[in-house]
Write a structure and sequence with these properties.
The protein is 15% helix and 32% strand. It has 239 residues and is of the alpha/beta class. It has one domain: Ribonuclease Z/Hydroxyacylglutathione hydrolase-like (Metallo-beta-lactamase, Chain A), CATH 3.60.15.10. The protein is globular, with a radius of gyration of 17 Å. The N terminus is likely disordered.
Length: 239
């Protein structure tokens, strides 16, 4: 039996690959940036909320709309940069641009502006704060100009100022293509905000970065519980 994500209880989290996760509380399923891979959901039962943070193919696929066929309520929460024709004919669709708000299945949702495309999601469920960054990150590319990287840093820090002071769970890009700068997004976040559970994503299969991230954050005296991913699917419990 799954417990409530409230008053000291927890929820089950399943990693589905890249930046795709399924969260399950007692009352609702929450599916983030699913594009492919193993996905098992009961055809009936509790409501499902499907999030897509932006239009990039590694975060959004029109295949998600097949989930509307399951019995029970299914609502799609989509970044406004996704072409509307993909959801033609569907009634339960919520479109959100940056700095907008909605409430779906008793989950309060607000958005931030990505430093790449689309939005990041901040969820409030019974007073618990969950942050799904999408592609909002400190993207420091070695091949870019100093001016570009400085602007990226400023833009990222500006968005971090809009987060709650404390997060129960944060899903953060940890991209191996950034080389040693892979840590910057997580490091910047933890220097400003208390995070109880940090879940790396956008790994492109480089699971070894999870353990490295946990070690290097500790070396910087930035303490959080880092989830070590190693396979897909992978399920664990967050209390």
């Amino acid at each position: 039996m799954l417990g409530l994500f409230v008053h000291g209880y927890g929820m089950d989290c399943t990693y589905l690959g890249h930046s795709a996760f399924l969260l399950e509380t007692e009352n609702v399923y929450l599916l983030f940036d699913y594009t492919k891979g193993s996905l098992e959901l009961p055809s009936v039962g509790k409501p499902l909320v499907v999030f897509a943070s932006h239009r990039h193919g590694d975060h959004f696929s029109p295949e998600i709309f097949g989930l509307a066929k399951r019995k029970g309520r299914t609502t799609f929460v989509l970044s406004s940069d996704i072409a509307t024709h993909h959801a033609a004919g569907l009634e339960s669709v919520v479109w959100l641009g940056p700095y907008e708000e909605a409430e779906v299945e008793n989950v309060a949702i607000r958005t931030l502006k990505s430093t790449d495309e689309g939005v990041a999601f901040i969820l409030d469920m019974d007073g618990k704060a969950v942050y799904f960054a999408g592609d909002l990150n400190h993207w420091h590319w070695n091949g870019e100009s100093e001016e570009y990287n400085r602007q990226m840093e400023e833009d990222y820090h500006q968005e971090l100022r809009l987060l709650p002071h404390s997060l129960d769970v944060a899903f953060i890009p940890v991209d191996p293509r950034l080389e040693d700068a892979y840590i910057l997004g997580a490091k910047d976040l933890l220097e400003r905000i208390s995070v109880h559970h940090l879940v790396p994503m956008h790994l492109w299969g480089a699971y070894e970065l999870c353990s490295r991230l946990a070690r290097e954050l500790k070396e910087h005296n930035l303490i959080t519980a880092v989830t070590v991913l190693h396979a897909e699917p992978q399920t664990w419990r967050i209390e």
